[in-house]
TrEMBL record:
Its cofactor is [4Fe-4S] cluster. It comes from Guptibacillus hwajinpoensis. Adenine glycosylase active on G-A mispairs. Base excision repair (BER) glycosylase that initiates repair of A:oxoG to C:G by removing the inappropriately paired adenine base from the DNA backbone, generating an abasic site product. 8-oxoguanine (oxoG) is a genotoxic DNA lesion resulting from oxidation of guanine; this residue is misread by replicative DNA polymerases, that insert adenine instead of cytosine opposite the oxidized damaged base. Shows a powerful dicrimination of A versus C, since it does not cleave cytosine in oxoG:C pairs. The lineage of its organism: Bacteria, Bacillati, Bacillota, Bacilli, Bacillales. Its EC number is 3.2.2.31. This is Adenine DNA glycosylase. It catalyses: Hydrolyzes free adenine bases from 7,8-dihydro-8-oxoguanine:adenine mismatched double-stranded DNA, leaving an apurinic site. Belongs to the Nth/MutY family.
Length: 364
DNA sequence: TACACGTGGGG
DNA sequence: TCCCCAAGTGT
């Protein structure tokens, strides 16, 4: 144990802490669909969905996803487009692609059994240190740390850790501390109890210290610093990106859509033709030029039908949406389609483009 | 290390 | 309206 951790755990009664935390968790835990059993596959899917995503948001996605892909084999054999469609609206779409890739790996290499050791499970795509620990502890009851934002917040307050939890380097401190205080008898309830406590009691703002089952163990509560902890530096503001979009119909009334590249932002999702605007020049002209280059066709741009912002973690699309007509034919490619309005719902769109689909409905 | 990578809810 | 998030991972 290094010096910093020794200092932090000085006079800390981890046995009593485990008992108080786990007793509370067993009595107060929420009924969540991924807690119905310990199927490693279901735990895995839930942990991926829960990354940076609220429980209430995940629940319906999890139910639908498990209905559609109930087993490792079912997900391994599914079409990627169907997986992305099931993920539509959940965000961070690489999670879905990495999950299916890793599930195929488990099907091929591990006879469809999720590995139960840190070495092998950590190799799987999309399974980082948190998710590895979560699956090992929850599905297999193995005492591995599962340090997420909740755990860092709770431990910051309990032990009085004044490190910036936004810095990647500080997660090591929390992992090491957790290795020393985790319950060897019930690591599943310990890890889930820490996260449940963070979600329900030890919240980021206005924590409910008077209801806290481990209040007696909490240094922050003792010194009244629970509102100051954890230390968390601020993120940069999203960068604005002006974009012109056009909803194009051909002579038969079919809409032109294209599949985004399989890497980067919104990978492999479908969208309406659009171009990032540069300074100077009419938006319509830039759009027509872009369409000519990308789709090799001429278009008539008729009206502006919407303008709105869509904010991502790191950037802000400033969208101007036009409606227009295709003159002639479109270059035929695998990632370009002409589809009826009814067929649009078969494709997975990012939310910004779902909003545009909704605009079409209103305009017809 | 720092940034890319989404979305909808809540104060 | 704005800002902060919410059970992180990949590069």
């Amino acid at each position: 144990m290094n010096e910093k951790v020794t200092e932090l755990l000085h006079l800390f009664d981890e046995k009593q802490f485990q008992y108080d935390l786990i007793s509370w968790y067993k009595n107060e835990q929420r009924n969540l669909p991924w807690r119905e059993n310990q199927d490693p596959y279901r735990i895995w899917v839930s942990e991926i969905m829960l990354q940076q995503t609220r429980v209430d948001t995940v629940i319906p996605y999890f139910e639908r996803f498990i209905s559609k892909f109930p087993t490792i084999e079912a997900l391994a054999n599914a079409e990627e487009s169907d997986v992305l469609k099931a993920w539509e609206g959940l965000g961070y779409y690489s999670r879905a692609r990495n999950l299916q890739s890793a599930v195929r790996e488990v099907a091929d290499t591990y006879n469809s059994v999720v590995p139960n050791n840190p070495k092998e499970i950590a190799k799987l795509k999309g399974v980082g240190p948190y998710t590895a620990g979560a699956i090992l502890s929850i599905a297999y009851n193995i005492p591995e740390p599962a340090v997420d934002g909740n755990v860092m917040r709770v431990l910051s307050r309990i032990l009085g850790i004044w490190e910036d939890i936004a810095k990647p380097s500080s997660r090591k401190t929390f992992e090491e501390v957790t290795r020393h205080i985790i319950s060897e008898e019930d690591p599943s309830s310990f890890n889930q109890g820490m996260m449940e406590l963070g979600a329900i009691i030890c919240t980021p703002k206005s924590p409910s210290c008077l209801l806290c089952p481990v209040q007696n163990h909490c240094r922050a509560f003792k010194e009244g610093s629970q509102e100051e902890l954890p230390i968390k530096s601020k993120k940069k503001a999203p960068r604005p990106v002006p974009i012109a979009v056009v909803v194009l119909k051909d002579l038969r009334g079919k809409y032109l859509i294209r599949k985004r590249p399989d890497k980067g932002l919104l990978a492999s999702l479908w969208e309406f033709p659009n171009v990032e605007l540069t300074e100077g020049g009419l938006k319509e002209d830039q759009l027509r030029k872009h369409i000519k280059e990308e789709y090799d066709c001429d278009v008539a741009i008729e009206n502006e039908i919407a303008a709105f912002d869509h904010v991502f973690s790191h950037l802000k699309w400033q969208l101007t949406v036009y409606i227009g007509t295709i003159q002639g034919t479109v270059k035929s490619e695998e990632n370009v389609r002409l589809v009826n309005k009814d067929e649009l719902e078969e494709f997975a769109f990012p939310v910004a483009h779902q909003k545009i689909v909704a605009t079409i409905e209103v305009n017809e």
